[in-house]
Amino acid sequence: KVRTDNLNNVYETRRIEKESIYDQAAKVLQETGRELNLAQKLMVVDNLRGYKTKINFSGGDPLVLDENLELMRYAVSVFGKDLMEVSTTGVGLSKRSPEDLKELITKLDFSYDATEGVYHPNRPEGYNNSNLKKASLFSKAGIHTVAETPLSVKNINKNHIFLLYENLNRAEIDEVKPMRLFPVGRCISKTN
After folding, report:
1. What sections of the chain are H helices per DSSP?
2. The whole model's pTM is what?
3. Can you tell me the distance from the alpha carbon of 74 to that of 150, in angstroms, rounded to the nearest whole number?
4. Sheet holding 84-88: strands in order across?
5. pLDDT digits (tens, 9 = 90+) for 54-91
6. Strand 175-180, strand 107-111: pairing
7. Rounded CA gap, 15 and 155, in Å?
8. Are 106 and 140 in contact (CB under 8 A)?
9. Which of 31, 76, 90, 120 has the greatest number of beta carbons closer than 10 A?
10. Using DSSP, how many helices (H) and how many strands (E) does the chain show?
């Protein structure tokens, strides 16, 4: 007699290992009603039918969830690629290549607010440089790239601004969006 309970545990473990931690966390949030599931996200797209509207997939880094690529494909089938954009952070850029997105979006916004070697209290070491390298690949693949650059007392001196611009220019980033640093999330205690 073969014990199937252990075999089922092995299959379940392998299935979970293939899912990202982000997908697993999203399922928990969806099951508890704190995040939309894929069917609900698709309904949002359906509710926008008939309107010519740009859609920017953003918030919580939309590229970390595999189901969001399915959502993006669906939105493209409804509205066309020219109206699709995504705003992402380092994690999302690490998970996706230009090939994954070139048929889904025309514009990629990413975070970049410090040059390599400059201390930045709100970012992990290497975050900005990694984002810039990855975003450069999207730019070279023909996707319009926008560096979202929150400004603070840590990065507004003239030399640093020059280095930021020089790095973005060398990486062939299409646009820079200077922003105010918002005192929310990990910056909640920052007032400058």
Report:
1. 4-18, 21-31, 38-47, 66-79, 90-95, 98-101, 127-140, 158-170
2. 0.82
3. 32
4. 55-57, 84-88, 107-111, 144-151, 175-180
5. 999 998 789 999 999 999 999 999 999 999 999 998 88
6. unpaired
7. 44
8. no
9. 90
10. 8, 5
Output the pLDDT for position 191: 54
Q: What is the mean pLDDT of residues 5-32?
A: 69
Q: Structure tokens of 37?
A: 């599931």
Query: Counting every residue, how long is the chain?
Result: 192
| Structure-token pair, residue 39 | 């069917």
**Please, are residues 89 and 114 in contact by the beta-carbon 8 Å criterion?**
no
Closest CA to 135 of 68, 177, 181, 89: 89
DSSP assignment, residue 180?
E
Q: Enter the tokens of residue 139.
A: 């730019």
